[in-house]
Design a protein that fits this description.
The chain is an alpha/beta fold and about 230 residues long. It folds into two domains: about 5-180, Nucleotidyltransferase, domain 5 (2-Layer Sandwich), CATH 3.30.420.10; about 190-230, no CATH class. The protein contains nine helices and six strands, in the order E-E-E-H-H-H-E-H-E-H-H-H-E-H-H. A six-stranded mixed beta sheet has the order 3-2-1-4-5-6, with helices on both faces. Helix 3 (about 70-80) crosses helix 4. It is elongated, with a radius of gyration of 20 Å. The N and C termini lie far apart (about 55 Å). One of its GO terms (molecular function) is exonuclease activity. This is 3'-5' exonuclease. Keywords: Exonuclease, Hydrolase, Nuclease.
């Protein structure tokens, strides 16, 4: 079992790095099996948090209104991580968001990690759900605030220790840190059709938007079109 690592978790406005945003980072730094430092901070997104995300995480727009922007929070989190191994539940999801943010800051953020979800899929094939909540319930691990970043990170650390206790001797390879590999999708420029449709929508809706038809990407154009179409 690793004696030193960082267990971390994020809350985000959606599932797509580069398109959606980080709204909370929670992490704990473990040294010789003991928590020596914690990281808990909201990040204020550029776009409002949707009711769906609020229902899932409990995080409201009011809670993040006075928070720093995600770039500042991520910059501090990168420093917090130092050269540690990262541990997470479906770790590549959280890693991908930090990786994209790090690249935007000019940092590579190349890490190795251990995924408790990957371990659970191997050693608990009989379980229908391998979610963090289901595994915590199975092992009687208390999580005081599920779907909040720090509490999920703490629950993940406890789950890792529990799984290592029961299974590391039998499945040592599962508990070896592996390079975390995520290649951000290359942004594609918006099509002329999208730009034309967007201009028409802005005019018809009387909307006031700051955007540049020369630099807008396909995903950004799609998001703006979807937002404008949903407005009465």
């Amino acid at each position: 079992m690793l004696g030193s690592y960082i267990a971390f978790d994020l809350e985000t406005t959606g599932l797509k790095p580069g398109e959606h945003e980080i709204i909370e980072i929670g992490a704990l730094k473990v040294r010789n099996g003991k928590v020596v430092e914690r990281f808990m901070e909201f990040a204020c997104p550029k776009e409002p948090i949707t009711p769906v995300i609020t229902n899932l995480t409990g995080i409201t727009n009011e809670m993040v209104a006075s928070a720093r922007c995600s770039q500042d929070v991520v910059r501090d989190f990168l420093g917090f991580c130092e050269d540690d191994i990262l541990i997470g539940h479906n770790v590549i999801f959280d890693y991908s968001f930090v990786k994209v943010s790090a690249l935007n800051l000019g940092d590579q953020f190349e890490k190795s990690g251990i995924d408790t979800l990957k371990i659970a899929r191997k050693v608990h094939k009989e379980m229908e759900s391998k979610s963090l909540g289901s595994l915590c319930e199975y092992y009687h691990i208390e999580n005081q605030a599920a779907h909040r970043a720090y509490h999920d990170a703490l629950a993940t650390a406890k789950l890792y220790q529990t799984l290592a206790h029961y299974f590391e001797e039998k499945e040592p390879k599962l508990f070896q840190p592996q390079p975390l590999i995520y290649k951000p999708k290359k942004e594609v420029p918006a099509t002329s059709k999208q730009i034309g449709f967007l201009k028409k929508l802005i005019q018809n809706k009387g909307a006031s938007l700051e955007w540049n038809p020369d630099t807008i990407t396909k995903s950004e154009a799609s998001r703006l079109i979807e937002e404008l179409c949903s407005k009465p």
